[in-house]
Amino acid sequence: MEMVQIGPVAEELAARFALAGHRLYLVGGSVRDALLGRESGDLDFTTDARPDAVLALLAGWADAVWDTGIAFGTVGARKRGDTVEITTFRADAYDRVTRNPVVAFGDTIEDDLVRRDFTVNAMAVELTGAERRFVDPHGGLAALAAGVLDTPATPEESFADDPLRMLRAARFVSQLGLAPAPRVLTAMTAMAAELRRITRERVQVELSKLICGTHPRRAVELMVDTGLAEQVLPEVPAMRLAVDEHMQHKDVYTHSLVVMEQAIEREEPGSPDLVLRLAALLHDIGKPDTRRKEPDGRVSFHHHEVVGAKMVRRRLRELRYPKAVIDDVAQLVFLHLRFHGYGTGEWTDSAVRRYVADAGPLLDRLHKLVRSDCTTRNRRRAATLQRSYDSLENRIAELRKQEELDAIRPDLDGNAIMELLGVPPGPLVGKAYKHLLAVRMERGPLTREEAEAELRTWASENGVG
User: Fold this and answer.
1) What angle do CA 264, 269, 386 make, to 5 degrees?
2) Range of the domain at 227
3) Which sign does the torsion angle of CA 345, 349, 352, 354 carry?
4) pLDDT-based confidence at 253, cuts 50/70/90?
5) What is the predicted pLDDT for the residue at 32?
6) pLDDT number for residue 311
7) 446 within some domain
8) 129 and 159 assigned to the same domain
9) What does DSSP assign to residue 268?
10) Which stretches does DSSP call E strand in 292-415?
């Protein structure tokens, strides 16, 4: 099939399998991505050869071989920088309690393809025949051309076998811009609760890929509309109940989707930022719990950033995200409102220093999040907010030139504190250090003499020495 370009590694592999009398097919996402003209770092193959025979064929050819998936019929290898996975034809059955298949090897490519998740992933190209043969028993090519996501078997059968496929459907909406077929939507809506059978770790992997896709808003909307979000990120559909305090957005949910899209526009091209996108989507999840009607009739959400940061930590921990991701997303949510105290430049230099110090390495992301959080339709207000943030960024740049703002430390280190006060290492040194850091924030850099005088004054006031 000429529309699918086969590289030299695949050609060499096919020749080895053909010589041994076995059939080899390029399959699944590798075929789909080739048809879409998308680069794919990995090559997926299926074969009639059993795993032991695959290992024997790779010996002496591959640069590296691993068999961690051999219980499921999969052998991995690397050749000249290309990663390949070769899986024996499968004809699995599922117990439909867990998502674990009872592994059974199949005899035909057709048996193998019918058990795959979606028709766009159920296409194969035979590489070992007299000529390449395109195998597409479920209309995957037509579905790909039409932008439709459907299942080879009925969606009810497919999702009962592996409920994670429902979340994977949302991932393909995000990554490929496909639209689920009506029967897929119906099954997802009816079976969303089945996702509880899936480990949180596997759910998190799919969610992260979905958030980092090209169309994450479409995918999040699909999750909310089908009920999948209630199983994964229930705080997101909950935002539909809260009206934004400006009373100009349909709801906080819609506002949050727009903020995520605007944050994506501020990313480096081709470098999706999971932390920034999660923070943008979740920055207002504290609003439903803090919503209050004030005496003047307006709606307030006091301290929703504090509540939201705690909710983010709880949810991302439950989804088994790494601690670094949890800390960063929660801190961005916690800080996203801080700028609104800046006004037209009322902050002192001390307040600007604290903003930078509290953001730390997240400062660039915080800039993007805060700017993206402006979704007002009032152009004059939007322009005023952007000018105000321009002013803050300029203040930061000026202070950074003067003070090495990104590495603010007290003007005396721990050793100097111990020497001057004549005290050993211990909590007292930490208290003195913290005091000098606060002075540094408030007054900017001190000379050595000024810092020592400040420390002596503090020591005298606190009965030290």
Assistant:
1) 50
2) 150-232
3) negative
4) very high
5) 93
6) 97
7) yes
8) no
9) P
10) 292-293, 299-300
Q: Which two tokens stand for residue 158?
A: 């497919």
Is 255 among the domain residues? no
Residue 52: C-alpha distances to residues 45, 48, 49, 56, 59 (Å): 16, 12, 8, 6, 11
pLDDT digit string (tens) for 25-51?
999 999 999 898 887 768 999 999 999
CA distance 32 to 141: 8
pLDDT at 235 over 70: yes
Please state whether 24 falls in left (phi above 0), alpha (psi between -120 and 50) or beta: beta
Q: Are residues 324 and 385 in the same domain?
A: yes
Q: Are residues 308 and 427 in the same domain?
A: no
Task: Return the exposure string of 221-256: e unless at least 16 CB atoms fall within 10 Å of the residue's CB, then b.
Answer: bbbbebbbbbbbbebbbbbeebbbbeeebeebbbbb
The token pair at 263 is 């944050």
Q: Do residues 274 and 401 both lie within one domain?
A: yes
392-410 average pLDDT score: 73
**If you ran DSSP here, which 8-state letter would residue 333 be given?**
H
Tokens of 212: 């980092």
Q: Name residues whose C-beta falls within 8 Å of residue 440's C-beta, 6 or more positions apart in sequence.
A: 408, 409, 410, 411, 446
For residue 319, pLDDT over 70 is answered with yes
